Amino acid sequence: MERFLAAAEGDNIDELKKLIRSSEPTLKKMASKWGDYTPLHVACAAGHLNLVQALRQLMPDFVETKDNYGLSPLHIAAAQGHAEIVRELLREPKRLCSVKGQDERIPLHYASENGKLEHLKQHKMGKVINLENDEGNTTLHLAVSVKNIQVVDFLLGQHALRHVVVNVNVYNKSGRTPLDLSGREAGDRAITRSLKRAGAKHRIAGGSSLSLEGESEANIRSPLLVVAGLIVNATYQSVLQAPHFKTEVDKTYTKGFLAWYASWMTGIFGRDLAYIVFITGNTFGLLVSVQMTISLTKDLSVKLRMLLSMTIMVQTYYCHTYYLRFTTLEKQFGLKNV
């Protein structure tokens, strides 16, 4: 392969083509041995336009070949930002634009995420601009997620000029629009303004009820998780250190809030009903906060571990509640477990 790369650096195209013709069987064996990573992939990665042109003409099958990761030479060139090579590969066939590689990404996705603006300018984006990867993200989603204002402005500019129709309010599989992915940092504000000028919106009808008007989910997730965590902790600790319900109201009791609360509840509901009201309300609060935590983390990589830990915590809560049913009532109310 070194001979081809060295020859590609020169200007003698005829010599390069002659070398390719004489080595065609060897080149195909190399591609098979390397997991379909062809010499054209190598040329695209190295940025050798001469070699790309010669291989495209003499070995056109390499143009559409995908390696073990599902990447075509066009994916490689787009990710590297080699605009001239992209133009060369796009001469034929046009369907290369929509070839999906690893994670269902098309070449345009790589160019957008890596900020390769020159590639975007060469790309015929009309039919592929709104194609999604395996997470449901479009080219605009990816550009916003990496905070690339130049790419975002270019895509929205093409949309404004009606060269392409960019869906600025499309949801990904997490239910987020491009505007939902924009945060509050300095770079994000410029992107947010550009998106809103193009008519982008946060969650609309059918979206998650956890989204707030004018706020991205990324901005509200953290404080909501903190609130949910505090409620989980408070309700769980309340059962571990359950209040002792007295048989009658003690108005002079001043040893802490739980003791006063238990005495007050006994006076209003009676001892048996007071205990039931406490356990029912506390359990409801715990379950709602647990469900809220699971909902907020459902699209994170730790969602399964979070679900497992919450399930175990609820299980221990119910075990302790069942234990309290006998120990507390027997000690304070004279009930026996029969």
Describe the model.
Keywords: ANK repeat, Membrane, Transmembrane, Transmembrane helix. This is PGG domain-containing protein. ANK repeats lie at residues 69-91, 135-156. It holds the Pfam family Ank_2. It comes from Corymbia citriodora subsp. variegata. By secondary structure, the chain is mainly α. Among the domains are: 1-99, Ankyrin repeat-containing domain (Serine Threonine Protein Phosphatase 5, Tetratricopeptide repeat); 217-333, no CATH class. Helices cover 59% and strands 0% of the residues. It is built from 16 helices and no strands. The chain has helices at residues 2-8, 13-22, 24-33, 39-46, 49-58, 73-80, 83-89, 107-113, 117-122, 139-145, 149-160, 186-197, 217-240, 257-269, 271-296, 303-333. α6 (73-80) packs parallel to α8, α11 packs parallel to α12 and α14 (257-269) crosses α15 (271-296). The protein is elongated and about 100 Å long. It starts with a helix and ends in a 5-residue tail after the last helix.
Précis, in short:
This protein has 338 residues and is mostly helical.
List the SSEs and their pairings:
Layout: H1 2-8, H2 13-22, H3 24-33, H4 39-46, H5 49-58, H6 73-80, H7 83-89, H8 107-113, H9 117-122, H10 139-145, H11 149-160, H12 186-197, H13 217-240, H14 257-269, H15 271-296, H16 303-333
